[in-house]
Structure formats: C-alpha cells, structure tokens
Amino acid sequence: MNTLGKKIRLLRHQRGWSQEDVAKRLDISIPAFSKIETGITDVNLSRLNQIANLFELSLVLLLSDSDSEENKGVQQEMKELGDRLQTRELEVIDLQKKVIDLYEQLHKK
C-alpha cells in the first residue's frame, strides 16, 4: 500500500466509513476504490480532488507526506481562521443592520 492509499484508508477509518461508503460517495465501484486505497491504480487529478473534497481536505493536505501531527495543526489553524471569519461576517451583518436602522430613522423625520 502506498502512502496516499494509507492516508485515504486512515481518513476513511477516522470517519467510520466502509470502502462501500466511500465508493458510493465517489460514484465508483468498490473494487475501483479498493485499488485506489491499495495503490494498485494511479489516481487522476480529478479523482484526487474529489477524494480531498470528500474528506474536507485541501488537495495539498491530501497529497502531503508530512507528519500527520503537522497536518492536524494546519487543519486546526484553518478551522480557527474559518471560525474567526464567520464571526467577523456576523459582525458586519450586524453593523449593516444598524446602518439601515439609522438611515431609516433619519429619513422618517
């Protein structure tokens, strides 16, 4: 089993998915997925992208040979940044509502 296959297998196990579950999600046969996981078949870029999206990873992280702890750190940092972005977006929406309210108050008079 190659490094990529091992990583895909680990990701699958972390989610508690069977090979059948993943194969269905990728819209391929179970034997075709098994060959990807065992490294018997080469995977094209389109399929790699599909696998990365399925496991909610960037293609770079999926293909990375770096230590899994490093990957976890990057994933955690990306999650934190996403959370901060969402918080800021909510703040912007709140401020937009306040501006609209103030505008309406000024034009009622």
TrEMBL record:
SMART domains the record matches: HTH_XRE (SM00530)
Is Transmembrane helix a UniProt keyword of this protein? no
Which Gene3D superfamilies does the protein's record reference? Answer: lambda repressor-like DNA-binding domains (1.10.260.40)
Q: Which domain of life is it from?
A: Bacteria
Q: Name one Pfam family in it.
A: HTH_31
**Residue ranges of coiled coil:** none
Keyword list, A-Z: DNA-binding
Q: Which PROSITE patterns match?
A: HTH_CROC1 (PS50943)
Question: Which residue numbers delimit the HTH cro/C1-type domain?
Answer: 8-62
InterPro entries with a match to the protein in the record: Cro/C1-type_HTH, Lambda_DNA-bd_dom_sf
Matching entries from SUPFAM superfamilies are given as: lambda repressor-like DNA-binding domains
* Record PANTHER family: HTH-TYPE TRANSCRIPTIONAL REGULATOR IMMR (PTHR46558:SF13), TRACRIPTIONAL REGULATORY PROTEIN-RELATED-RELATED (PTHR46558)
Q: What is this protein called?
A: Helix-turn-helix domain-containing protein
Organism of origin: Sphingobacterium corticis
